[in-house]
Design goal:
The chain is largely without helices or strands. The chain is about 15% helix and about 0% strand. The protein is built from one helix and no strands. The longest helix is centred in the C-terminal third of the chain and has 7 residues. The chain is extended and about 45 Å long.
Length: about 50
């Protein structure tokens, strides 16, 4: 971090997109009972693999 500039790697955002609010996620604030189409689950299965 340099002044008001924060450089990150691996962020899933378009280059130059401003980050308005940055905070950690906690289990207590995550939604529950999420339902999504099965094709999304298939699509995302290997998303984070190298």
């Amino acid at each position: 971090m340099n002044g008001r500039t924060l450089e990150v790697l691996g962020l899933d955002a378009a280059t130059g997109t401003p980050i308005i609010d940055l905070k950690p996620t906690t289990i207590e604030f995550q939604p529950t009972d999420i339902r999504q189409p099965e094709w999304v689950t298939r699509l995302m299965t290997n998303y984070f693999l190298p």
